[in-house]
Amino acid sequence: MNRAWQHAGRAGAPQVAALAGRPDLDVLARWRDAGVTEVLFGMPDRAEGEVTGYLRGLAAKLGLPAREAPGP
Q: Residue 36's pLDDT is what?
């Protein structure tokens, strides 16, 4: 991907996004190696507390630190 980008005379590197259904560390690693720079996950259509819990669980599964949401 980067070679084609550079061969076309473009500066920098392409930003490549992928939509994922469920977090899978092996798939994410392959995508990273292929040049994916951002992965998007769908959010559940639930109450705020349930979505926050979902995000904390997703962060834990991916080995990321959970952060508190900014205040109003």
A: 93
